[in-house]
């Protein structure tokens, strides 16, 4: 690499130590749930959905004859279908339904009782057992309370509700299965002879070289060693625009080469890929408990005791009135109504949907508590380098002595064309962006500690920093001096173009501010959130960036070890702080913050220290987290209010408080209303799918 040590300082970093420019999403060893096509893909819930689906249809087939030949149903609808032995249809099929269809609820209820954690399953088990027992006893003529049709309809409805619940949760977790499907089944491996062979994904190893054809998906994380391509990474970042990649750039498993073929060398496979890490993070988020979920669990347990108490009171009151039949009917109905089916679905479905929705937008929720807390954040602390800025130099300004900046760029780019130094690349990029062709150069020479030089059109052209001017005993003319002073005052690195020992112009190079950063800051201000920036760079550099972005407060010249002290300082001011960093040197601050958000998926430290990992480098992704936090919390509360409120209002009706005015609630109707409550909760949660979490939405 060409020596540019005197050009300026290295690209400013938040810790004053060199590091690679941040490319928006690096894949530095996620240890996640992807191995080929395996991983956490909601298979458990899909299996439960299939089980309840089959059980529902089979029990419905058995329940229909029970209802049709029920004496009470025939009386209600004024028909008479009987034949010798028809009186045994309901008892026989009802018994099968109880033991087969009711098995999930009976075993679940027993488990809850053994664990002393009463909940929905125990309530359902009690309801169907009471109905079954009373119906069996009625066969002996000791009682006249046959509930076969109620038992059959109740179990069928409960199975339907559980099928829909498992189906909905399985669909929510389908994002994980979809991620697994992004990985192709085979790959084209390049042999030692240069030919290609088709091999299974499981046969790939780190170091293998692959041919990725146009339109094909990348099967593993790797580095391009031949070719230039535009890659669709929307599955990872949520950004729809293809990303230009060239030799030396990283590509990630699951992305698509949209326009050209490339050759890559594998750097990670299976669980170690960025995609595998995403799957693991989403799975962890869906499996972890949140405060809202804990609240729902406590509510379900409380409802068990409320239901038992209400059932006992109901039975005692109706028995005291001398109405044994009503006592049993009302008690069964209370137990049916009290089943916290909707309550049990209220939170898990919202969480599953929100984490899956987030993953689709490149927001990887590791800790649900972090997602819930984001709605309370009033201060966001951004690390500067690699977060608000690109982490690499750009030409911020330039000035030519003769006013011909295009000629100045052409000469400088010609000298720097073959250099990989960050400052050299910044000048070459500027020329390319402005449509300026670099002049062909010869006799390239690196001048240690001063800069570089080459011959162009017979002229000796050099590019360097202040040391070059001191060696040549050159002083910038007045027309440049004032500009250079302004550049240096805001912390810019200054390079000079020297032609035949005369200064031809100067460049100001700065850590480029992401174009999305200003929009992110403005949007946060619109939400009433204070924006603070922290950096290891000089106060002048920090103030310049803060002024351009409209940032409220700045912590400058901060060492990495002291960043968490800045977070603590803000918290001591009574602020609820979210820290946004690149996950490399910001681990202490990410861990100390109320919510830590790591920009760029795949770094080990981000996984360990941040509650949320943003696959995109776009700082506007933070707004998506805030939006999701508010929306998911709102849905949780709405569902809790509906589910709990429904039970609280329905239990007195089930107990028969309106019986004096002629209104009674049959058990089957109670079961139907309970399922309706479940449908309302599920439909309300599904509205989360309509959220737009893309950066352009903010």
What do you see in this structure?
Mean pLDDT is 79; it is low at 1-44. The two termini are 41 Å apart. The longest helix has 35 residues, at 621-655. A seven-stranded mixed beta sheet has the order 10-22-21-20-11-18-19, with helices on both faces. With 698 residues, it is an alpha+beta fold. It contains 25 helices and 22 strands. Helices cover 50% and strands 17% of the residues.
Brief rundown of the structure:
With 698 residues, the chain is of the alpha+beta class. It contains 25 helices and 22 strands. Helices cover 50% and strands 17% of the residues.
User: How many beta-strand runs?
Assistant: 22
Put simply, the count of helices is 25
Class by alpha and beta content = alpha+beta
Share of helix, binned: 40-55%
Overall pLDDT: 79
Note the main attributes of this structure.
disordered N terminus, 50% helix, 6-stranded antiparallel β-sheet, 7-stranded mixed β-sheet, elongated, single chain, alpha+beta, 698 residues, 22 strands
